[in-house]
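User: Could you check the structure of this?
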Amino acid sequence: MDASCVVRILGSAAGGGYPQWNCRCPVCTLAWDGDSRVVRRTQSSIAVSGRLGEWALVNASPDIRQQLLDNPPLQPRRGQRDSPVTAVVLTNADIDHVAGLLGLRERWPLRLFATRAVLMALAANPIFRALDETLVERREIALGVPFHPVTDVEMELFPVPGKAPLWDEGDEVRTDIEDGRTVGVALRGAGDGAWAHYVPGCAAVTDALRRRLAGTALLMFDGTLYADDEMIRLGLGPKTGRRMGHIAVGGSDGSLAAFAGCAIARKAYVHINNSNPLLVFGSPERCEVEAAGWLVAEDGMEFSL
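Assistant: Sure, the predicted structure tokens are below.
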């Protein structure tokens, strides 16, 4: 039977992409030097389509124009103005997930789906008024309530531990907030198709989250940093991964250990930071996650459900 839903990885890197424009950390240096063990990546986003050929973006990367150029199924097909992209779903208001909305402002009707918290964050920033309100319909989505961003795809938003976006942080920063500011997305082809889950940002794997994700046909999960102190150790920044709202992959309290033994058919790390050795084919860290059954997502990778 034909797949009822297709998921395409548009961007597999974290904010800044890979290599990051101003970085010569050990992993970025490989890319700048043309090393065959690494491939370049754009910033985090996926696209989802059902049998009718409409596409919904999940997050709008700052690299959205390049991603559309790189993916022919998402390109115009007929007439002077056309696009099979008719919806955008947001998992939070991070810059690497919403800045691409400004690249979709050229008078094309879109439906924008997000939680109240994320829509309020956009409404508070006047730059997003560039999206013509007569063409871009903003729809508030409640947690746990199914919706259809395109006709033949069903989605549901669920809370995951996270924090306010960097540009909206206050004096006190909490990374355990589960109020809709950071969500995961459950998705499937409309009907009784298999579920997939997309969680590009997550500060901790709780028991409740593990139970929700157990049994999924496909998990695309936050792989930002391999080690929690990675940025500090490499001299790239003062924050741990958890302080940035991202659980590490490795370590006894990392996501690799958290999902060990969890019944998940296919699993792939997404939203991978430029400093992460998972980006290097053959690295000990990559061999470890591959031995545990994980893929390291690349731009253009496609999954059928």
